[in-house]
Write a structure and sequence with these properties.
The structure holds two protein chains of two kinds. By secondary structure, chain A is an alpha+beta fold. Helices cover 18% and strands 28% of the residues of chain A. Chain B has four helices and nine strands; from the N terminus they run αββαβββββαββα. A seven-stranded antiparallel beta sheet of chain B has the order 1-2-9-3-4-7-8. Chain B is elongated, with a radius of gyration of 21 Å. The chains are: A alpha+beta, B alpha+beta. Chain B: The active site is at 40, 84.
Chain lengths: 166, 164
């Protein structure tokens, strides 16, 4: 009888922790594992055998105030089950003239342009175009795992691709 | 004495946190309500405002089919939601008129909905900003499927004004 009560207690504790954990990771902060080398050298530079894990804050989703250079996690527009992590390089209303395109594009209202750091090995806005801000799931702020790579992720603005706004 | 108070406080906090979590999870993953208004879904939904029940399960399991009314985060403004009907899913061809009032042959466009996107349109094609203007929307922007209308806001207001 007592073992049954113990089991019931333990399962109830797990249930509570699960509920609160899920809520916190949905609304406030969560942890996201980075796969692949598309954001190297900022993330997954290839020096350690483990994938980087980043802390993702979700407070930015209340206002959708993003700046150029923010590293964001978003749902892939071509497959909603996949999540990607990339850097925002252009915001709505900006004219954008990347060196690999021969034309300038204007990013539509409510969208942003995302790119990986490792341009040779990254699926980003260069293939699927600007993404709606609504797909963004959060902003990566810190690397928290593995221990030797712990640190803040800086906002870095790539130079030379943006035209002055008209 | 203090230990007991602290213990009790912790227990109460946990209870409140659990309650809020259950609220959050049921409204994010199972079912929530939303107030919609505007002319774009006439005559299915009222212009003055309807309260709809929205379920989030069929979105999660990929069971959305053409004909469903869905609540979608607007691609033009992520803080807003729009309610439209799915007309086509990925791979389907669509033909549409951007300006239905100017009825001539050149107004028609057709395209195939790209992978991972859906084509949404309001029932009132004359007063609706939808995929005809901003193109197919990614599946990830869909919040849920509206399946039940709870009340007309106008009748509710009427009742309230009668009451006072």
């Amino acid at each position: 009888m007592s073992s049954r009560k113990f089991l019931w207690d333990v399962s109830r504790k797990f249930f509570t922790v699960g509920l609160i954990g899920l809520t916190v990771s949905d609304r406030y902060v969560s942890i996201f594992p980075v796969r692949g080398a598309s954001m190297s050298p900022t993330l997954n530079p290839g020096t350690s055998s483990h994938d980087d894990h980043v802390l993702v804050e979700k407070f930015c989703l209340q206002k959708y105030n993003f700046k150029r250079g923010d590293v964001v996690v978003f749902c892939s527009p071509t497959n909603h089950k996949e999540k990607h992590i990339k850097r925002i390089t252009g915001l709505a209303g900006e004219w954008f003239a990347p060196t690999y395109l021969y034309d300038a594009v204007r990013i539509p209202e409510g969208h942003c342009w995302v790119e990986g750091e490792n341009l040779a090995n990254s699926t980003d806005s260069r293939s699927f175009g600007p993404i709606p801000l609504g797909l963004i799931q959060g902003r990566a702020t810190h690397v928290i795992w593995p221990p030797q790579r712990v640190g803040k992720i800086n906002r870095r603005v790539p130079e030379g691709s943006r035209l002055p706004s008209f | 004495m203090w230990k007991n108070i602290a213990k009790e406080a912790w227990r109460q906090t946990l209870l409140v946190a659990k309650f809020l979590s259950i609220l959050h999870i049921s409204s994010t993953y199972v079912c929530s309500s939303i107030l919609v208004y505007g002319p774009s879904m006439l005559p299915t939904l009222n212009m003055s405002g309807d309260v709809l029940l929205v379920e989030h399960l069929s979105k999660r399991f990929g069971k959305l089919v053409p004909g469903d009314i869905v609540v979608v985060r607007s691609p033009l403004n992520p803080n807003k939601s729009v309610t439209k009907r799915i007309l086509a899913v990925e791979g389907d061809p669509v033909t549409f008129l951007v300006e239905p009032r100017q009825h001539h042959q050149h107004g028609y466009h057709s395209l195939v909905v790209p992978k991972g996107h859906v084509w949404i349109q309001g029932d009132n094609m004359y007063a609706s900003a939808d995929s005809r203007h901003f193109g197919p929307v990614p599946y990830g922007l869909i919040k849920g499927r509206a399946f039940c209308r709870v009340c007309f806001l106008s009748s509710l207001l009427l009742l309230i004004s009668e009451y006072f």
